[in-house]
Amino acid sequence: MQTTDLHGTLRGYDYLADKPVDTGGLSRVATLIRQCRNEQPNTLLFDCGDMLQGSVTCDLLARHELNQTGAHPVIAAMNSLHYDAAAPGNHDFDYGADFLFESISTAQFPFLCCNLHRTGSGLIPGPPAFAPHRILERCFRDLQGAMHRLRIGVTGCLPPQTLEWDHHLATEFHIRDMVSAVREEVAAMRKTGCDLIVILAHSGLEIGDRAGAENAILPLAALEGVDAVLGGHTHARFPGEAALPHPAINVETGLIHGTPVVMSGFWGSHLGAIDLTLERTAGAGWRVKQAAPRLVPTGTPPNTPPASEDPEILSITRPVHEATLARIHEPVGETRTPLHSFFSLFANDAALQLVARAQAGFLREAIHGTDLADLPLLSAAAPFKTGRRSGVDHYTHVPPGPLTRRSLADLYLYPNPFCALHVTGAVLRHWLEYSASLFARLDPDSAAPQPLLRDAFPGYKFDVICGVSYEIDISRPARFDDNGMLLDPEARRIRNLRWNGRRVTDTMEFIVATNAFRAHGIGFPPELGYHPTPEIVFESPVWTRDILRRYVTTHSPLDFEIQRNWSFTPLGGVRSLVATSPTARAYLHDPQLPPVEDLGDMPEGFMQLCLRI
User: Fold this and answer.
1) Strand pairing partners for 230?
2) How do the domains of the chain map onto residue ranges?
């Protein structure tokens, strides 16, 4: 059995909406785990990382704002469920390595990772940061009731990009390619006589086998000697939506290169399971005769009630749940302007511009009296909650009225420290081209409605840069794919890029307020045309959410006019389809929207809109 990407979701409660929900949460997964154990006595339970970061509760725990004593609540809950092993995810490092290792010190199961080492001497890595593997000895009962002792070898891995995303780790750790590290670990475990080998990979599924890939499930499943691969990281599900067109991927059987693979979504949306039938062969020990990966949802499939919440997990998490509720209800200000992300991917909106204004004000104050103060100041912000794969309820929505700490967490989801970049006009244009790659290419001559967004491109990569104005011509092809790899060197969607009415030239210089994750994680690799590489000229450990809190407190009540700093290049009224929350109907009169028609609700619960571009 597998969980992954829980992100601190301990209960079926949405703290940002301040209401219970009937899907997700470790409390519901726990019920499914206990049901599986009742049905099948031979079980193992693993987690594939990103369990300690990603919720309001986790943020408050990391900042010691909940007066928590004893084990971290996530680890306490996992201990109660008797996990057999886990692998760390990249986001588990977001609060620092010290916090991570302190949090897992009370785990009654091993954390495994074979491709992360402490910094060594020169090119030689130091000791492993985690145990590289563990051989579990378990007694299992066969169909005739006889007991057998099996040796199960387990290893874990996480993306090499972790040291880029959490750049503060780069001086402490050395990281290797996942596939080469796992290959060596599998060989070492096989030499000890393991009966089964299981890989816990905080990694997703993509086509290709390049060294250092972030999503390496495909080549990991092809490794000799591997019996099962458990994945995660991308929040996708397999078998299911994560399937890609590749001859080695069988979405019907859940096998990749003949190896069973499962990826169980995120936030406790599903329990992943692989049903293995083993047989003993003469001279060769045990082997997998049959494998059946499957996903068990915690939510509400058609005509089926959701899984109930496990009483033991509810009891363990009750103190931290009540402390979180008390914190998020603390008042911070007031807004007269509605703040939401219902239209953030296709129109200017107040929520993003509020974040941009707060960042700009913080940076302006920080660089006052320095040479940087003479540069034009811009501010980049991206929407974090845009529905899509995360569901119809995954939008920011702060109506006019009082603002609380919950409101700020809804507006800015992640604990990102502040950062500022010195960029040229050429870099700025490429940055915007990358953001504009969110959109599908529209055919202006087509009378049929066309999808507006590219499914693979996540909304949180759609940076809107305030302080300049520009158009996006989506009749042109996208320049980049969702990972920032160049698709078409001739593609140009950004038009009429201007600062203070002046056309932006390649040699103009700007300072851009952003966050450390974007500044370090986006990478600006030279092969994408970023010349020169942007320079980080200011960093602060202050979270952007705290900057937002200061701004709201100072400027409350918020009441401002949305600036129209970007728009689509008109395409003669071509029709384009996009989905959003039905709650957005109250805001369809927004003057920032292009001409729009409400086409009603979709089976998944979203409202479908038809835009005229």
Assistant:
1) 200, 262
2) 2-324, 330-445+456-561
